[in-house]
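Sequence and fold:
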Amino acid sequence: MGSIPAVVTGKLYSELFCTIQDVERYQKTLAVVKTGMPFRYEIKQVSTRDGELHWYDVFVQKLDDGVVMTVMDMSGRKRAELNASRQTALLQNVVDQSPAGVVLTEPIYNASGHIVDFRYQLTNKLNAELTGYTIEQMVGQPISALFPGWQQLSLFESMVSVLQTGEPRQYTEEYNNYGVKGWFEYYFVKMEDAVLLMFLDVTRLKTAQVAQQQQADLLQNVVRNSPTGIVLYEAVRDAETGHIIDFIHALSNPTNDNVTGRPNGGVVGLQVLEYYPTNRTNGHFDILIEVVETGQPQRQLLDYRAHGINGWYDAQYVKQGDGVLFTYLDVTESQLYRSQLEMANRELKRSNDNLQQFAYVASHDLQEPLRKIQSFGNLLQIQAGAGLGETARDYITRMQQSAERMSLLIKDLLSYSRLSVQPDQHEPVSLAELISDIFDDLGIVIEQTQATVSAGDLPVVLGNQLQLYQLFQNLVSNALKFSSIDRTDASAPTVSITARKLSGPALLEPGIPLELSTGSVDQCFQEISIQDNGIGFDEKYLDRIFQVFQRLHGKSQFAGSGVGLAICKKVVENHGGAITATSQLGKGATFRVYLPG
């Protein structure tokens, strides 16, 4: 006990042990002498020999009129117990602080050697709180004592399998038993003849994943069934400069697959310019770059006619990462309806304008002279009729009748212009035969002007024979009329008529009337050109020459009513076509008529 035996020998007990504890032990030692009943106690003190804490086991028993005290140094064993206790406490603390539930179980076998249950050897606070028990209530207890019938759960089967095979097992499943509900990720591992189960509560994560998956499924369903074409483009950049040189199709929905003719996402992975090179020139590629670089969304009405795609599309471009989400809706039908409505509105406006112009002229410029002729004729008949000869009276009567017929004709023309009725039906008309008839009818004029007229291969078109005759007869007559007799050169007038068929991109050529490109994407037109070498005109008057009663020259220079080209325009519009002209003063003119066909 740290004292030298020689020093202890002969000393009184009270001299060596004088603490309160020593006094208590002294009293118990006296009791041993009196009663003969031995007792044992433990002493813990710092040794004077090595300065370390020591533990001693002291056994006191009676011997004659005294006692024998047997002292055993148990410091080594005590230190081992303390270390084990500290390790156990540390392990329990680690287990309790774990974010996972921890359960260590040992199997319980029946008489046949089959595992019928497991017993808790260790668990932590998380598992205890989850189940509603304390750690003390759980450790040492069979699981079935706390959770009857748990052997029917997959947990029991997993623990038996891991114990028997030694193979760890891990899975995630939904749990809803014994008042506990949620999603848990389980991990089972064998530890000698026990099974360690660790689990994580992943309910929030799983709920978020389920919600995310539902949202993704919903979005995918919307994308898959949307009537809107949806394409995700990802930028392809130059490795050195970082500039965008192309885009890759990263996503395509079935609507876009149908439009492009590549089913099942056939465009995915394809580069835009490699497979659709016209996108570089039609503005689509430039818009993609602008959206990526500026981040500003774009929207436009896209007229796309290439790579087997023909139509109008309401297109929107939105930046998505280093790419563009491109969505579009086929509005070809509505665009055609809109174009037809606009054309109808323009036609109505033109008709009203022409009607107003014609009504004004008919009411003032034309009717007024006729009224004077009729009035003076009546006065002449009344005041001088008796003194006139039969021939003179006949002349006056004829004059009156002619004036009356002229007045009636003007009124009829006014009524016709107000109707603006298109022909009830169209029939095939051979323009070759029609032009030949016109040349024959104008034979005297052609001969008088010594003109040369010619016609190439001309098509058959659907139309009204009478109106088409008026159209081309007026154009040929004008070509002959405006070949001035005062020409400075010696060349005779020439008039040539040619034709060609236009469709698709050709309708977008410069000089083609804009209204032709707003029709059906597969519509064709016949372009008939009437070219002369006459006096020509300044193109700044192009719109004016097709208006009713508009003239560029006085009546003293060239005869005419100023209605001929207006009639031409009305005829081609009634046939769903267009008319335009190009010219230079002194170098002739070319009138181009466009008729469906």
